[in-house]
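Hey all, quick one. A colleague (J.T.) asked me to put the calcium ion job into the tracker so the inputs and the structure tokens live in one place instead of scattered across chat threads. No bug as far as I know, just bookkeeping. Sequence used:
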Amino acid sequence: MTIKQTLGAILLTSALALSSVGCSKSEGEKAGVKPVASVPAYGTAVGIASGDMNGDGRLDALVASYKGSDTHIYLMKNKGYGRYSTTKIGAVPAYGTAVGIASGDMNGDGRLDALVASYKGSDTDIYVLLNNGDGTFSPQK
Ligand SMILES: [Ca+2]
Ligand SMILES: [Ca+2]
């Protein structure tokens, strides 16, 4: 296993662990915690990863969610002062249900990319979505 693969595995494991932590909106509201942003309605969120995805010095977030066997990834751009803008950056090449997401520079170009794990039956696939640097991502070929 290369260093990049090891780093990817560590990041993916961290994202999977974090994705299992959470509470329902009503539980959060009871505790006085309010959401900072909403992902446009598309199924169930299964993971979130943070990193400066657009190089502006502010941490952004990637959110993976699925509905049926479709997985979509959203970028929450940090606009500062607690404000975020959420856009869909694309769909994971269709194969099963997403279970986690992580970020890391997988191709060494200095921009954080997205790693998404998804499963179908007993198979799990890992997808790398390369950061184009303009708010869009492309599947690694
Ligand atoms: Ca940023
Ligand atoms: Ca990169």
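Adding what we noticed when we looked at it: The pocket of calcium ion (ligand 1) is lined by residues 52-54, 56, 58, 60, 78 (CB under 6 Å). The chain has two helices and eight strands.
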